[in-house]
Amino acid sequence: xxxxxxxxxxxxxxxxxxxxxxxxxxxxxxxxxxxxxxxxxxxxxxxxxxxxxxxxxxxxxxxxxxxxxxxxxxxxxxxxxxxxxxxxxxxxxxxxxxxxxxxxxxxxxxxxxxxxxxxxxxxxxxxxxxxxx
Length: 133
Fold this sequence. Notes:
- By secondary structure, the protein is an all-beta fold.
- The protein has one domain (2-78, 87-127): Jelly Rolls, CATH 2.60.120.
- Helix content is 0%, strand content 48%.
- It contains no helices and 8 strands.
- The strands form 2 sheets. Strands 1-8-3-6 form a 4-stranded antiparallel β-sheet, with no helix packed on it. Strands 2-7-4-5 form a 4-stranded antiparallel β-sheet, with no helix packed on it.
- A hairpin with a 7-residue loop joins strand 4 and strand 5 (59-66).
- The chain starts with a strand and ends with a strand.
């Protein structure tokens, strides 16, 4: 598993992870998120995003949504099913715990949006299972 984001969540705000690039000869089979709740806070959302234009525009692939309890979540990726090739492009606004149907482009990142002030022991790790084709 490759780590897309790993951090402690304290103050409310938006954090953009580093970008994983050069995915043209790779596939992401699955994504996973581990949220370890400390105290306080309201919501934390981890949007896994992809870009098809070298980072000029980002598309939500999936979002892992958390509140005030520790949780582990996962998503299995793949090409959209027949008849679902079109998807709505969103950037940090996909519905909670949803998938857009977007295929993975040449790069991915994680956009974390938190509301409320979490205690210093609240952490989030988002990982991707990346395989060479």
